[in-house]
Amino acid sequence: MKIHSPLRLLFFLVLAQQLAAQTPMVEVPLDKEFDNATVLLFKPPYQTMTVYIESDLDLRYSTISINKNSLFLKKSLGNRKMEKLKPDDQLIPEAIKSGMKVNLRIDHYQRSLKNTAKEVVLADDYYGNTGLKGLYEFLEGNQASVDGQLVALNSGVTLKGQNEWRDKKFESFNELQLGCELNVHGKREIDGIIYVTRGTARPVESNSDDRLLRRGVELGMQVDKNRLNLGKGFNRTFITDNVLQDYVNSIGRKIVPEYIRTLPIDHPDHIDFKYYLVEDESLNASAFPNGAVIIHTGMLRRISNEAQLAAVISHEIAHVTQKHHSKNFRKRKNWKDASNAIIAVSTITTSSTVPALAVGMLSEMYVSEYSRTQETQADRIGLRYMYDAGYDPREAGNLWKKLALDDAESLRDVEATNMMLQMMGEKTDDIPEKPVAPEKRESIYASHPRARDRFNHVNFLLSTAYANANFSKAIVNAEQHKAMVKRLRLKPAPKPVRPKSKK
C-alpha cells in the first residue's frame, strides 16, 4: 500500500471540497396552483411576473419566471392534452396587464424559492365580447368615456335613440349631448377600448327622488360660523384659513365635469359643489347629493401631493354625479315617509323643523354607506375626472399602494396574534378579522373596499385604459401640497367640544 505525502493528501482534500461545492443540490419542484392572483407587474421582455396572492403572507410565490414553455391561456388546459390546444385558446403575453386576476399553475422550488410558470390563465372575461351601461361624460377624438371606460364606434355603427329620443339615430359621439346614458355592446381589445357593434342612447333627467333628497340634505345641513352641522350628533369645525380653503376649492372646481359645471346657477339640474376642510384627524372624506364635499384634515396630512388630493375629491364627486345616494335611499322601507316629511317642510328653512328622518339620512351619508360596486365605480369614474382635469392618475395608484402596504402589514400582525392566542387556548371571537388602527377609525376603511383591492383595480385601469396616455405635463404638485400641510400644522389645535351635562 502506497503512502501519500502530506502535501499530496492536502491537494486531494482541497480538490474534493471544490468538487463537492460544484455538485448542485437536488430540487424537485412542487406543482402549485393559485386562483385569483393579482398581477402587479408584467412588462417587456415578459420574463418575470410579479403577483399578489392573498394567502401568500411571506411572498414566497410573488415572483414568477416565464420561459418558452409557459402557456398563456384564456381558459385552463385542465385534462386536455397539449396537442388538442387550439390557437384561439392562447393569449399573447402582452395581453396580461397589471391589476388583472389570473389563475396560476407553477413549479415551485423550496430551497431556492424559484417559481416557474406552467400556465397563466385569465380569471375573468375582460377581453372579448362585453356590454357596458353608464353615463357618457367625456369625448376625446373618436373615443368616448362611458362609466369611466373608453369606447369607440366601429365603422358604420349607429346608436339608436330610446325614450324621448326613440325616433333618433346617432352616427357618432359628436351628435350626442354629454350626460346622457349609453348602453353599448362590442368587443374589448388589448388596448382596453371597447369597439362598439351596437348600442342605444337615452336622455337622463333628474327625477323627483333626486330633487327631494337634495332638498332634505339642504334642510339638515347647517353652517354656523365655523361649524358644520350634519344632522343630529354630527358636527365638525371647518378650516377658515382662506389660503387652505382656496387650495381645496381650486382642485374641486377643475374636477367637476364641464357639462355639469357650465349649467346656469338657476338651472334645476345645477349642482353647487362646495368643499369643506374640517378638523378631524381620521382618514376620511365624504360627499352629499347637494354637492357638499367634506375633506378631513387627517386626509390632507396623510397624502403626498395635490394629485392624490384630486383623486380623493374626484371619487367623492363621482358618488354625486352617479346619484349613488338616491339609488340607495329610494330602496329603503322608510323612504316614502322620509320624502313625505321633506315635502311637508320644504318651504321652511329653520333647523328646528328638519324632519328626523332627513337628519338620520345625513348621518348615514356621512359614514359613506355605499356598496362595493358603487365604490369601485366611483374610483373608476373619479380616475377619469382627475385625468381630464390635468392631474396624473398614477398618483391615485400610488395613494392606494401606500395604504395597501400599511393595511397588509397590520393584517399580518393580527393573523399572527390570532394564531398565537389559539395555540394558547384563548378565545379570538372578540378580535376583528381586519385590524383598524386608532387613527383610521371612522375612515375610508370603514365601508370602502380594502385598499389592496382599490390599488389593484386602479393599477389595472392605468395599464389598460390609460396605457397610451401622455403624462409628461400631468399635474402632481408635491411642493405646494407640502406648503399647505405645513400651513395646517401652524394652526393651533382645536379645542375639544365637550357635551353639555344633563341636569
TrEMBL record:
GO terms for cellular component: membrane. Coiled coil: none annotated. Residues 1-20 form the signal peptide. Residues 258-458 form the Peptidase M48 domain. The keyword Chaperone does not apply. Keywords: Hydrolase, Metal-binding, Metalloprotease, Protease, Signal, Zinc. GO terms for biological process: proteolysis involved in protein catabolic process. It holds the Pfam family Peptidase_M48. This is M48 family metalloprotease. It comes from Spirosoma profusum. The lineage of its organism: Bacteria, Pseudomonadati, Bacteroidota, Cytophagia, Cytophagales.
